[in-house]
Amino acid sequence: MEAARRAQLRPEMQDKLRAQSVTKGKSVPQVLVVCFSIVLYFLYPSLIRQIAQLNKCDTYDFGHGVERELLVVDYSIDCRSARYQHVRLLSVVLIGVYGLGVPLAFRLVGAFLRRLRGEAMELETFAFLMSGWTKRYRYWETIVMLRKLVMIAVITFLDERRLQVYVFLWFLGVTMVAQFFFRPSDSPIGNALDTGGLLALLLTLLLGLPLVEGAAGEPDLFAGVVEGGPAYWGFVAAILTVQGAMTLGFVAAVLWGGRDKALVLRGLVAVTVRRKFFAMQQIENQKTYVTQAFHSEGPAAPAATDAAARSAALRLKFKMLGWVAVRTGASLKRNSVDPHGGAGGLLKRLSSSFRALRRPPREPAVQFTGVPAPGVGRDPSSDSATPTLNVVLADDEP
């Protein structure tokens, strides 16, 4: 049943569904590559975090002035022993292999598939990775993976808290500028959310910098910020304000994008319902016409002609409804480049499209062949008297 429904779709829709599917329409090697890539993609953050923990040590006071640094994942390993040096070297190698190797492998495998089978094969195989990005920056998700790698590495290898904040400020500033100028997302809302999220992180770190303790012996520029004092709570309130504003912006963007999609979905559902209704009504009209044409001798033929004309007019009106649905989908695409787009522009284009439906449709030409003239008898055994209904529209395309 599902295969029959897919076969009735347009070729471009079939290609889109096949590209989004993990198994349908793909060869066995391609399915293996897709499954293995998906597993690596979702395990990447946890894998890097576990490898980075091999470098994390905690200091414990055993009393009498005895302190020892023990590995977090294994307290039997002293961080000052030669065994720990081997573990640390292994973790650095694994971070390089997995942290840099997985994003690089996605790019290399994609380039190999594009050279071997063309760009369509590349897009189908890595649809889970490229979804949501423009064609030019379709591998931007690998940049996001490397960003996670850098943040985990900074937290792991830098022990001084304020130095971590300084590095994060520089790094987030660079990534925010790159996000703002390249705009890799295929949706304006997506680009705005990514840029706003990075900006919120940057402001949070800037406002939280006075709350972070510096290293021992380092001159403290924020010595006046005492925990529990007015300045301390002022910075905390500013951080909460930034985070709250970002959360409200995210909710508003989701609702705004969902509203546009709901308008399109509502129009498509209405067109689908009208399509089924008009098709059933057209079939019933044709059946009525054929029955009246063969069982009447006079006035039924003009009545049948009127019924067929009304059926053809309904068909033309349905085609115009389909044209409205196409214009609705195209209007959403124009929102990304139309400065006057958005919900207001979309509603204006929808209203102009539906106004076109009020225009009287073109009169169809109805031709009947093989039907005997009124009053003329018909031989039931004759095959040449088989009725044929031809409805010719003046403009069959919307």
Automatic annotation (TrEMBL):
Residues 357-398 are annotated as: Disordered. The chain crosses the membrane at residues 27-44, 89-113, 139-158, 164-182, 189-212, 232-256. Keywords: Membrane, Transmembrane, Transmembrane helix. This is TRP C-terminal domain-containing protein. The lineage of its organism: Eukaryota, Discoba, Euglenozoa, Euglenida, Spirocuta.
